Description:
Elements: E1 5-9, H1 14-20, E2 26-31, E3 46-49, H2 57-60, E4 65-68, H3 77-80, H4 83-98, E5 108-114, H5 121-125, H6 140-159, E6 163-168, E7 170-172, H7 185-195, E8 199-202, E9 208-209, E10 211-213, H8 214-225, E11 231-235, E12 241-242, H9 243-254, E13 260-263, H10 267-272, H11 282-286, H12 295-307
Parallel strand pairs: 1-2, 1-4, 2-3, 4-5, 5-6, 6-11, 7-10, 8-13
Antiparallel strand pairs: 9-12
InterPro entries: Epimerase_deHydtase, NAD(P)-bd_dom_sf
Pfam families: Epimerase
Organism: Candidatus Buchananbacteria bacterium RIFCSPHIGHO2_02_FULL_38_8
Amino acid sequence: MAKKKYLITGGLGFIGSALANKLDGHVTVLSRSDERKDRLQRKDVKILIKDLNELSKDDVMDVDCIYHCVSTVHNYHVLSDPYIDTDTNIKGTIRLLELYKDALKKPRVIFPSTFFVYGNEYDRTGEPIDENSKTEPLGLYPATKLCAEHIVKLYSRLYNIPYTICRFTNVYGATESFDDPKKAWLNFFIMKAIKGEAANIYHGGNFWRDYIYVDDVVEALMFVEKLSPNDTFLIGYGQPVKFKDLIEYILEHTGNKIKVGVMDPPPFHQAVGIKNFVANTAKINALGWKAKISYQEGLQRIIDAYTSLSI
């Protein structure tokens, strides 16, 4: 049997590159630059250096499945250039789907979205969030991701492009950058602890989140490809953890008792950020998938990887 052909937009990013390393098939990754090609462990992955809005049909025809991973990743663009979110998450998604609306062969589109589309629904109701919970994004990033979800569904109805939407909780892992707290605060804090440098945390870490390790994310993305199309899943580890418990584990296992200060989030963060989030992942669990990597194991992987770096 011939192997499948995959296209991963944002394929040199944090999630996209991890997925490219695991997929069994012919993989093409789309990226604006080859700056992070060191994330790829395979030599047989084709790298297509183009902006999503520059794609042509000749570039991407004859693929079986598209993982549309290209995305902005935080709320802060609205302060400097809000069009980054709209151009990437909305216009980029439309551009991609337009290439396939008249194609004889319709690829499956798997779209990683975010738990941020729910806003503070958990704090409002006190009930774990599932796929049917009310969506009310608080920032431009999740608002554009939710808009992109609806665009994916629209093109499915109009042009029969099959899709799966995966709303992931907090994704973390060792290959994420450690120098940008806006993108990966947990990694940023781990590096601070390894270096013995003081750091501040919001609310004293007294809030609940669901953290899912990137390897579990990859397994979930490959799993949903096997399911019936045209569905949405909330995907996380499935057990909430207090943020201060993550901090305590990091401090204990880096061996550095750094000074950890407590601070209130700035007004902007308070306006667009989520405080507590508890996920109900029963829907995808019932179909046979469940995350395997505990927060302790995931944090230890990052600590081990960062400790081995020459800094």
